[in-house]
Amino acid sequence: MTLQVTAAAGSRRRELASALRRGVARQVVGTAGYNIASTAAAGLGGIIIARALGPEMEGEYAAVTAWFGVALMVGGMGQPAALCFYVAHDPGNARGYVATSRAVMLVTGTAALITGVLLAPVLARGNPGLTVDYRIVFATSIVAFVGASYTFSLQARNLRRWNSVRVSQPVLSLASIVVLWRLRLLTLTAVLVVLALTMLAQLGLAYYRCRSADLAPGRAQARLVRPLALYGTAQIAALTPAVVNTQLDQLVLSQAVPAVALGRYAIAVSCSLLPIPLVSAIGNVAFPRLASRRRVDGMARRMQWLGILGSACVSTALLVPLDLVAPWLIPHVFGRGFAGAVPLLWILTPAGVFLACNQVTGDVLRGRKRPLVVARAEGLAAVFTVILLVVFVPIAGVYAAAVASAVAYGVALVMMLQSLRRLPSDSSGPKHRKAPGR
Number of helices (H) and strands (E), helices first, in the chain? Predict the structure, then answer.
């Protein structure tokens, strides 16, 4: 009789594990589909903007959006990841975390707006029209920060709703850009107004979804500021060197090599990033799942390693065939002048695989409340990036930058994998009490 009970229990565990794997697989595939749709909408919108604005205005648009990206990273204070973690890890206080993060984001958004208003004339180099454009995007940062508080809480509670909110902004933006383009009304200012309005619409949709997911309304709580701030600070510590690793090469090359060489390098980098929309879906699903666990059991540990292995396989399966057809494909798609990007893509292929694995491994570590591990790994990789670029770019130009990227991403991946392997099963931190009255 005891053997029968044990066998039945083992059978139920196997059935549960199988159902869990199927559920995770469906979520990864669905999230990957949304990632591809979002990337395609943003990419097509970017092509239309470039064709409508021309090279000079496209450069101004790139500068404005680059500074907007910096404002979002710094002013966001790592709150998207912090909020996703704590809503998953401490669901009893979910409303409080969302409301507290929203209050913090209102403060940082206001600071970003004031700073942007003051810096806009400097960034625009005295151009009145461009000054207005900078002020539009800095004003939009408030909407973006508050919207992130609602959007990323959904990642922990309901992936399908989170995905639908995420994709809404690029799809609405693309539709608006197409209409303005057809009416011959597409200017830089119009594009930025579209950005502001579509982000406002995304905020409204995110709030509506949060209400239906029991994440809003809520009240900010002073006691929740500290855990959100600590996790967010660790996340910023990881994001800053990560930006150095992904952007510094092109910033250095812009001053050290001819524009033609930089153009070819940029095309090669873009091609090496092809797997990211697919692979990042694995981390998008793994992060909140791991954060919600008090203890990471054997099955969860196997699934996290399978996710990392899957990211390596997917990225390799996409980039190796691309390498084979690149000598024909790149000149036909981008023009014969970009044929020099082919050998650069071959060098950057390992970097692309390493970066894809880094995305998933970093999300796994964040889900296990180890954002500082990611920060240390990315920080050491940034040191390698700086040294290799300074020493070898004057000698080998863009080829040195490609090698530096591969080495830096590889260093970060090795450090994160070693840290993940050493983590104990129970690594999610202390238990939290449920909020009273909930």
Answer: 13, 0
Q: Which of 122, 79, 120, 118 is nearest to 100 (CA)?
A: 79
Can you tell me the mean pLDDT for 204-214?
Answer: 88
Distance of CA 327 to the CA centre of its chain: 30
In this structure, the answer to whether residues 118 and 27 fall within a common structural domain is yes
292 lies in some domain: yes
What's the CA gap between 83 and 275, in Å, rounded?
Answer: 26
Is residue 184 domain-shared with residue 208, that is, in the same domain?
yes
- pLDDT at residue 178 in the model: 92
Domain membership of residue 1 (yes or no) is no
User: Could you give the maximum distance between any two Cα atoms of the chain, in Å?
Assistant: 85
Compute CA 185 distance to the chain's CA centroid, rounded to the nearest angstrom: 31
- pLDDT confidence bin for 432, thresholds 50/70/90: very low
Q: Are residues 166 and 312 in the same domain?
A: no
Does the pLDDT at position 402 exceed 60?
yes
Indicate whether 361 pLDDT > 70: yes
One domain for residues 139 and 238: no
Residues 6+ positions from 154 with CB-CB distance below 8 Å: 161, 162, 165, 206, 209, 210, 213, 215
Q: Could you list the residue range(s) of the whole structural domain that residue 113 is in? A: 19-220
Q: Is-contact 235 82, C-beta < 8 A? A: yes
pTM above 0.70, yes or no: no
Q: How many domains does the chain have?
A: 2
**Mean pLDDT lowest for which of 38-52, 216-230, 263-277?**
38-52
* Structural domain includes residue 5: no
Q: Distance between CA atoms of 117 and 202, rounded to whole angstroms?
A: 24
Other CB atoms closer than 10 Å to residue 113's CB: what's the count? 18
Identity of the amino acid at 220: A
Task: Note whether residue 429 is domain-resident.
Answer: no
Whether the upstream peptide bond of residue 430 has omega within 30° of 0, thus cis, is no
